[in-house]
Write a structure and sequence with these properties.
By secondary structure, the protein is of the alpha+beta class. The protein contains 10 helices and 10 strands.
């Protein structure tokens, strides 16, 4: 098939070509249908441009927002980087934190509430999924906790959102064994569906994944309490059936029946006043 319909060759254009190729291959067109598509190239381009405008509109999913007055527990504060490092070094005593204070400098971007200190996943485990499992075990040792997705956090179930994966690669360029990044704990996007929050992210903002949020709950054990804001992990995409359809996300919330913190999956299309997507901002 001719690939002249998408001609941009900058980094964003090359990514677009890749997305197009994946969609084209999934369509499984035979020779006749492929030729029909080529003959209708103009109509095809118009259709793509309409779809691009729809998917990049700042008003996309605007109806997936509800008013929310849920916030953080009384007296809750974002811990200083020194406090976070002290807690994390208890679990990872050999990790290099010599760079943390230097990186946690400058003004916070709009929406950020403080600096997050996150052990690099590949320092904690063999991959992101193993690192997540290790952090979940640490939380379970520290407090009453239930993982409702136990044995369902594999590569077939869980993957990083594209923007989050790209941001992780940039953060891995930081020295030492910890990422240091401005973040917000969910209130900035409270009342929005996960996909609405993703549309509202600024250029340098990305959703935090379940591993990053687990780290922050380890260093901030008082963040989730009864009748306060729960956390959607907007940086991960979740396939409950492991069948390739990553339509959900993961979330940490308070379980009223069990009176404990739980990890579960959640909708990305429904807006709840008691949930907010956590995010971080690449340092400028």
């Amino acid at each position: 098939m001719s690939k002249t319909l998408i001609t941009s060759r900058d980094s964003k254009g090359l990514h677009a070509v890749g997305l197009f190729e994946v969609a084209y291959n999934k369509a499984k067109l035979d020779d006749r249908k492929a030729q029909q598509l080529n003959e209708k190239g103009g109509e095809f381009q118009e259709g793509i441009m309409v779809l691009i405008r729809e998917l990049t509109s700042p008003e996309q999913y605007a109806d997936e927002e509800v008013a929310s007055e849920y916030g953080y527990p009384k007296g809750f504060q974002i811990r200083s980087v020194a406090e976070q490092v002290k807690t994390l070094l208890k679990h990872f005593p050999n990790f290099d934190a010599s760079h943390v204070q230097e990186l946690a400098s400058g003004n916070l971007p709009e929406g950020a509430e403080g600096w997050a200190v996150i052990p690099k996943p590949d320092k904690v485990g063999k991959n992101y999924h193993e690192a997540l499992g290790i952090l979940i075990d640490l939380i379970a040792k520290d407090r009453k906790f239930k993982n409702w997705r136990e044995l369902e956090l594999t590569k077939k179930h869980l993957r990083l959102a594209n923007k989050t994966a790209e941001s992780h690669a940039k953060l891995n360029e930081q020295p030492g064994d910890f990422w240091v990044v401005p973040f917000q704990f969910g209130i900035w996007h409270r009342g929005k569906s996960v996909r609405r929050a993703r549309v509202c992210f600024t250029d340098n903002e990305f959703g935090l994944g379940a591993y990053e949020v687990a780290v922050l709950l380890l260093t901030h054990p008082d963040r989730i309490q009864p009748n306060h804001l729960n956390i959607d992990c907007a940086g991960v995409e979740y396939a409950p059936s492991a069948g390739g359809d990553f339509f959900a996300c993961l979330s940490f919330r308070w379980s009223y029946g069990d009176e404990l913190l739980v990890l579960n999956d959640n909708s990305t299309v429904d807006a709840y006043d008691k949930w907010g997507s956590a995010s971080a901002f690449l340092p400028q």
